[in-house]
Amino acid sequence: MKLNSLHVLLTYQCNYECDHCFVWGSPRQSGMFSLAQLEDVFRQALAVPTISEFYFEGGETFIYHPVLVKAVWHAHDLGFRTGIVTNGYWASGVDEALIWLRPLRDAGLDRIEISYDPLHGNPESEPDDHPGLEAARRLGLPANLITVDLPTTYRDPESATPGEPLVGGNVMYRGRAAVHLTGGLPRQPWNLFTECPYEALDDPGRVHLDPFGNLHLCQGLVMGNMWERPLAQIIAEYTPQTHPIADPLLAGGPTELVNRYDLPHEDGYVDACHLCYTARATLRAEFPQFLTPDQMYGVS
Ligand code: SF4
Fold first, then answer.
1. Does residue 293 form part of some domain?
2. Mean pLDDT, 10 residues at a time, over the chain (300 residues)?
3. 1, 69, 92, 196: which has the fewest C-beta neighbours closer than 10 Å?
């Protein structure tokens, strides 16, 4: 497996509750890494030679800023590249943003990505003078904005590279987006979604790890649990052909997932993720260890 990047969901909690959030981030969410768990993850990652990078995501990473600083420092100290994704709520001004960012720069952070778009409550234009970007520039810290378009249509699957993180463009309709944002949008016939356009389910280059130990191939689609089996073992034993959800998705996309388990469905869906997420939600009772945790399916 070519897995090179672990994206740690530091917490499911967020100070916002955006309609397009894949992970149902919310102030009411639960789940937060302890420092001891993070140290265990870094130690286990050292045993997997292909892993060279940690990204820290959420939820909102900065609501646990002291833990985030310690996590970046520890990962950097062990030789991993590090990045952070944040909604930038803390960047109320450049001077204030410098206070938040300087400890992270000093801890060895390599990159920060700040969500800035109407879906996060920001104006539609991309500001060149975003206080977080300006503060990062002054600190010599590489930074960029992630801007997701308002949901008017579906993402062009041809524009996607499976396994690459979201950096902009249209919404993908999984998580809360599949429930909150699909109403009134144009739909395509359910049997046309014959491949997963966005995730390399057979050989992922990056996976997400949540505070419950779940390793996610896609949000809510789990390949194993690090609190139950070592990371190196999960990777070595992962065979997509025996995974009850990844196998049909690789064989024929969300359409095959519906066919394989003879699931009820509507005539059309906004995109492949909309059908996939909806189908997976109906299969949770049958495959609880692969379609978890409740947080990813909006169950509080
Ligand atoms: S929701 Fe399904 S179709 Fe969409 S990226 Fe994830 S696994 Fe692929």
1. no
2. 95 93 92 96 97 96 98 98 97 97 98 85 73 97 85 56 54 89 92 96 97 97 97 97 98 98 97 97 98 94
3. 92
